[in-house]
């Protein structure tokens, strides 16, 4: 992988899978097929790779698991396949993080791209007026934070290459698909045009405004550029407490710039 995740995990290509080192825990990944996501595609009948992405939701070094559990944090790894689904790049369906009973809040997600490139798509609301929407372009080593309550979808930003990322989430996560599915998908569909990704408004929404930008740094969360977010947790296990306890960063969320 282009960026070292900070622990011994390898993304396998065909079939999509993860291989864990001796000191690493992780279950058999879940495979998301094209048939499972048709309702959220621009064209529900589109053709594309049978398996679109491979999700391993609880991974890390065995010695760190008690530290993660104590802070109600979970680390996940996901690979998105290369290729297209109709005229869309391979992407997730889009969801909002449901209210977790541990904190009585929707929670954020802290992404770190390990291989390939991505757009982390974010949408302020799942209602008819989608509000401010963003396509944040991220390359290996970039971090992107999705604030609590926002619709988000992960897009493979290069149709010629698989994309793999790691992310910090709350352990009792839940995905709420209702608003996105009621609109047959996210408010802006990524479309592949001349090898570039352009964004097409989904007319099932009444309005929404999209901004495309590059990934930024997050000094407000003391995230260190170039150091794996997994290593940053190992060095300071409380650094990502804002993920499982969003209330401690309330003021940051309220004025946060994507
Ligand atoms: O169920 P969906 O919306 O397709 O998304 C699954 C994806 O969402 C994530 O939680 C990222 O938000 C990853 O685990 C996975 O890539």
UniProtKB/TrEMBL annotation:
What GO biological process terms does the UniProt entry carry, in alphabetical order?
gluconeogenesis; glycolytic process
**Enzyme class label:** isomerase
Q: Which residues form the Glucose-6-phosphate isomerase prokaryote domain?
A: 51-204
Write the record's keywords in alphabetical order, separated by commas. Gluconeogenesis, Glycolysis, Isomerase
Record-level GO cellular component terms: cytoplasm
Q: Catalytic activity annotated for this protein? A: alpha-D-glucose 6-phosphate = beta-D-fructose 6-phosphate
Instruction: State a single Gene Ontology molecular function.
Output: glucose-6-phosphate isomerase activity
List the InterPro entries hit by this protein, alphabetically.
G6P_isomerase_prok, RmlC-like_jellyroll, RmlC_Cupin_sf
Presence of the UniProt keyword Isomerase in the record: yes
List its EC numbers. 5.3.1.9
Q: In which pathway does it act?
A: Carbohydrate degradation; glycolysis; D-glyceraldehyde 3-phosphate and glycerone phosphate from D-glucose: step 2/4
Family (UniProt): Belongs to the archaeal-type GPI family.
For this entry, the protein name equals glucose-6-phosphate isomerase
Organism of this sequence:
Mobilisporobacter senegalensis
In the record, what lineage is assigned to the organism producing the protein?
Bacteria, Bacillati, Bacillota, Clostridia, Lachnospirales
């Amino acid at each position: 992988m282009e960026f070292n995740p900070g622990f011994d995990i390898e993304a396998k290509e065909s079939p999509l899978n993860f291989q864990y080192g001796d000191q690493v825990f992780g279950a058999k990944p879940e495979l998301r097929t094209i048939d499972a996501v048709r309702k959220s595609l621009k064209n529900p009948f589109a053709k594309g790779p049978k398996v679109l992405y491979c999700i391993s939701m609880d991974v890390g070094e065995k010695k760190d698991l008690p530290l993660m559990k104590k802070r109600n944090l979970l680390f996940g790894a996901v690979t998105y396949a290369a290729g297209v689904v109709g005229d869309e790049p391979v992407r997730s369906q889009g969801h909002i993080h449901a209210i977790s009973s541990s904190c009585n809040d929707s929670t954020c997600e802290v992404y770190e791209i390990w291989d390939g490139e991505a757009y982390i798509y974010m949408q302020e609301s799942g209602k008819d007026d989608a509000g401010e929407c963003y396509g944040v372009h991220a390359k290996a080593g970039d971090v992107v934070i999705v604030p609590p309550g926002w619709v988000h979808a992960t897009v493979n930003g290069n149709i010629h290459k698989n994309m793999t990322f790691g992310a910090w989430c709350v352990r009792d996560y839940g995905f709420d698909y209702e608003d996105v599915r009621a609109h047959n998908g996210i408010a802006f569909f990524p479309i592949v045009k001349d090898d570039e990704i352009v964004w097409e408004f989904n007319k099932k929404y009444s309005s929404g405004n999209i901004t495309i930008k590059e990934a930024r740094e997050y000094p407000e969360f003391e995230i260190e550029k170039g150091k794996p977010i997994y290593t940053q947790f190992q060095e300071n296990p409380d650094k990502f407490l804002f993920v499982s306890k969003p209330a401690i960063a309330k003021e940051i969320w309220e004025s946060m710039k994507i």
